[in-house]
Amino acid sequence: MFIRHIIRIPTLYRGLATQAGPSIATPATLHLKTGQSFFGKSFGAPRSIYGETVFSTSITSYTESMTDPSYRGQILVFTTPMIGNYGVPHNKAPYNSQDVGVVLESQNIQCAAVIVGDVAEKFSHYTAVESLAAWCKRNNVPGITGVDTRAITRLLRDQGTTLGRIAIGPDAALPAPDASKYWDPSKENLVDQVSTKTVYELNPTGSIKIAVLDFGAKANILRSLVRRDAAVTVFPWNYDFNAVRDQYDGLFLTNGPGDPAHCMEAALKLRQTLQEWDRPIFGICMGHQIIGMAAGLDAYRMTFGNRGHNQPVLALASAGSIKAGRVYVTSQNHQYALKLQDPFPAGWEPFFINCNDSSVEGIKSTAESGKKVWGVQFHPESAGGPLDTIEMFTDFVSECKAHKLSLVNTTARPMEATVEAPLDISAKRVAVAAAA
Ligand SMILES: NC(=O)CC[C@H](N)C(=O)O
After folding, report:
1. Residue 379 annotated as catalytic
2. Contact 161/155 with Cβ under 8 angstroms?
3. Among residues 200, 257, 225, which one has the least CA distance to residue 71?
4. Span of the secretion signal (predicted)?
5. Is 5 a catalytic residue?
6. Would you say domain 2-187 falls under CATH 3.50.30.20?
7. Does the structure show a pLDDT above 50 at 418?
8. Which residue in 37, 96, 179, 300 has its CB near the most CB atoms, within 10 A?
9. Of ligand 1's atoms, which has the minimum distance to the CA of residue 299?
């Protein structure tokens, strides 16, 4: 504790000191493939790039969003007018052995570039060690400030996610590139670029063994499992899990970048797992899309997706901590979604639906199926975003434990939905003395 304070003192000093950012006078232009151009100033790396232009409505947690591997290849436009006020923390997790080596969501900035209305040149936070501009520069990631992000967002809402070009310095004055020059990240298997290449373990002495298929995992997913005392083994996205599955009490599929169609191989392997293995399975975002594809649902590309930490979802079914009929505010970052088809494949049901656009936000195995499988399009682990659905991790780990116990006790415990008994509130009505 004492050492921690000593280490924090210089950090605190640096964070509270007002620091001027680097010069932001270099011109920078955003060209969209659809022909529009926006002119601003550069911050971060003086490097011109291509990418897919998307917008996020998150108000805070730019550091977590930018290190989320699901933003790979994307030019991230923040709708919040000013970004960078609280700087960037040290990205090492030296104090807590439960952490997975980073404070943020991965080692490096993952998005291709950032666009903000007004970058904060001064920052202040007790954990901050550098400015947003300095961090971007160090990570070789360009940024544009001083553009009308509201206008860009309205455009993207109308025409959908659009390929873009960030042109910095002398490039900024050049005419927009020919439409054929724009790089389309959705054509690439980005998951293969961000997934672990080796199998590794976290918290090996944990009380329950969870296998994680890594499509581009956010660190807080791994932390959320380890915090619940799971021993976690992380596998590359296309690992043949069926060959080792009997060593694990549950399977988790993470988030990941790009078009889920590139991961059909994983969906087909999972289809076999679903047919032959009865232990709990939980998937988030890309993981949820893979579960859906394995179950026989189609994934489609949305117009502009959902990115932000304020997405309301309605629970259509109850399970564990989730109660049917309640709305949960969630963190999201996705461009694709599962198609709502009627009827759903046998043994499956919709779990959540988005309150804004009615897209599928979750699916689950039915009680009758005897399986314990569910996937959610949103991010219960947050980082950033609200913790409304964090207990889904507790539900998952508890189901894995219950299943393990059932193997020992031989009395299988079915995953029952915790449905609240109907409550007749008229019976609870108490007469109060008439108001004056
Ligand atoms: N965060 C994620 O896992 C995103 C999943 C997928 N890449 C999508 O954009 O829909």
Report:
1. yes
2. no
3. 257
4. none
5. no
6. yes
7. no
8. 37
9. 10
